[in-house]
């Protein structure tokens, strides 16, 4: 029987971050409100040289070899940090990765975009089992200085290679979806920062989870006992925990302890990177897979995706034999460890520095960015990207 799923995953986050205890002290807030109440320790801060295109490329680099590059015929970018109202960021990514003749497009639906891409890739590879798909979730979360949402900012990208007979995890075909026109989070074209009704959005998130979970149980006859772990979209790490706690009474005490332990493992990367919108669920999944010592082949993992506005989907995956060989825990640990901590002054300056919007020429300072692929300058309304490493072979 042909199976479709995720063969490999890649991660990227910018080279600079802000410590949230420092942010709390600067804003006159008890640090425990951020580190315990919100569940965040650090947040990645993107320099001008990184955007949804460059971060997506940098996340995908490790997934490509000669065979993969030749067989990828679908490339989907999920993002709500798009760089153009018309041209898809996926087309820049395709060129920078040296891919040829792939269907390449961009999906927008808040934080659900990468999941929409993953489901599209599942269907595509099912119809074309000799081909592969590359799905990327890449975003910069911005809420503005000294706003309630400031602590839930972040930046990064996750890339997923979808194939037949995947070596990492098989996606099961049963999924449940709930969607409705909800005004919990949005960003009008005229605004660089998002608007959010935080408490209301959390309520919708939990309600949508409960609906998709109930539908899943009813349509599959599975119970919470069938799951080794549950992963959630994580705009901040306490949000998923609030949803998980609503169904924990369905499990035995021992199962509850295991699910809570796996949940904490899934939050370790998010605590250091912050909110990456479309990639947040998959950042949590990668954290679980690379940090847990309790997973084994055959384990079922549940995944809850939520995009404000709002749409949610609950779906599942089964870990494959020797799935550990598809992971890169040490590389990702090094990526996080080598980042540079910003001072408050540096953070605020970097946050407020913007690219020109009048078409004028602009050169970007690359001294703080050692990334393989960067945005180098603006020229006549065009973004100029460069590959600074031989890791990418056009």
Automatic annotation (TrEMBL):
Residue ranges of domain Hydroxymethylglutaryl-coenzyme A synthase C-terminal in the record: 261-352
Domain of life, source organism: Bacteria
InterPro entries: HMG_CoA_synt_C_dom (IPR013746), HMG_CoA_synth_N (IPR013528), HMG_CoA_synthase_prok (IPR011554), Thiolase-like (IPR016039)
Gene3D superfamilies attached to this UniProt entry: 3.40.47.10
Record-annotated active site: 80 (proton donor/acceptor), 111 (acyl-thioester intermediate), 233 (proton donor/acceptor)
One Pfam family this sequence matches: HMG_CoA_synt_C
Broad class of enzyme this protein falls into: transferase
Binding site for (3S)-3-hydroxy-3-methylglutaryl-CoA: 30, 143, 242, 275
Gene Ontology BP terms: acetyl-CoA metabolic process
Protein's recorded name: Hydroxymethylglutaryl-CoA synthase
Species annotation: Latilactobacillus fuchuensis
Gene Ontology terms for molecular function: hydroxymethylglutaryl-CoA synthase activity
Keywords: Acyltransferase, Transferase
The encoding gene: mvaS
Enzyme Commission designation: 2.3.3.10
Family named by the database record: Belongs to the thiolase-like superfamily. HMG-CoA synthase family.
Ranges of residues in domain Hydroxymethylglutaryl-coenzyme A synthase N-terminal: 3-163
PANTHER family in UniProt: 3-HYDROXY-3-METHYLGLUTARYL COENZYME A SYNTHASE, HYDROXYMETHYLGLUTARYL-COA SYNTHASE
């Amino acid at each position: 029987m042909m199976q479709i799923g995720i063969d490999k995953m890649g991660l990227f986050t910018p080279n600079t971050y802000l410590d949230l205890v420092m942010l709390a002290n600067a804003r006159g807030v008890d640090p425990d409100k951020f580190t315990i109440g919100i569940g965040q320790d650090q947040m990645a801060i993107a320099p001008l040289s990184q955007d949804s295109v460059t971060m997506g490329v940098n996340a995908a680099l490790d997934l490509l070899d000669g065979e993969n590059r030749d067989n990828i015929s679908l490339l989907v970018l999920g993002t709500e940090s798009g760089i153009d109202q018309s041209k898809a960021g996926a087309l820049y990514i395709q060129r920078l990765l040296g891919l040829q003749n792939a269907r390449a497009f961009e999906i927008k639906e808040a934080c659900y975009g990468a999941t929409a891409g993953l489901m599209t890739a599942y269907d595509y590879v099912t119809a074309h089992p000799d081909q592969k798909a590359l799905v990327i979730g890449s975003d910069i979360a911005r809420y503005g200085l000294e706003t309630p949402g400031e602590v839930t900012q972040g930046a990064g990208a996750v890339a997923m290679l979808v194939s037949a007979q995947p070596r990492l995890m098989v996606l099961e075909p049963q999924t449940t979806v709930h969607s409705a026109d909800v005004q919990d989070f949005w960003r009008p074209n005229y605004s660089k920062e998002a608007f959010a009704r935080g408490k209301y959005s959390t309520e919708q998130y939990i309600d949508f989870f409960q609906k998709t979970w109930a539908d899943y149980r009813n349509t599959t006859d599975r119970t919470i006992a069938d799951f080794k772990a549950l992963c959630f979209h994580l705009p901040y790490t306490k949000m998923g925990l609030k949803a998980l706690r609503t169904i924990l009474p369905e499990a035995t005490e021992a199962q509850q302890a295991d699910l809570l332990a796996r949940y904490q493992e899934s939050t370790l990367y998010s605590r250091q990177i912050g909110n990456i919108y479309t990639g947040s669920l998959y950042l949590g999944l990668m954290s679980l897979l690379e940090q847990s010592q309790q997973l084994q082949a055959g384990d079922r993992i549940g995944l809850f995706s939520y995009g404000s506005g709002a749409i949610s989907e609950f779906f599942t995956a089964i870990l494959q034999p020797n799935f550990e060989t598809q992971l890169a825990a040490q590389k990702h640990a090094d990526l996080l460890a080598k980042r540079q901590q910003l001072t408050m002054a540096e953070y605020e300056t970097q946050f407020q520095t913007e690219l020109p919007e009048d078409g004028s020429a602009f050169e970007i300072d690359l001294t703080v960015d050692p990334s393989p692929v960067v945005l180098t300058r603006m020229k006549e309304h065009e973004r100029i990207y460069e590959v600074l490493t031989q890791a990418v072979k056009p």
